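USER:
I would value a second opinion on how I read folds in token form. Give me a protein, with the fold worked out from its sequence. Write it directly below this note and I will take it from there.

ASSISTANT:
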Amino acid sequence: MLPEPILIERLEEAKRCARILELDMSRRTVRAYLIACAIDSDIHINNIGEALNSAIANPGQLLLGAFEKTDLHQKTLLMLDQ
């Protein structure tokens, strides 16, 4: 899990990119993409805009990458492998 200051910085960058891409940040799907970009530590902060733009065409990859970073996913994956 990312430290809160880093998460805030990444989320601000995601919001900035969404404004540039003219995305409707009130839409539930767009909000999920913003969160996914912010929490996926494999996405460098300088590439958040690119990831967000790619999510419009292929949201599954972005959402799966973020989901795999969650503690709940990690715990459940360990139980699944037992």
User: Anything to note?
Assistant: The mean pLDDT is 92.
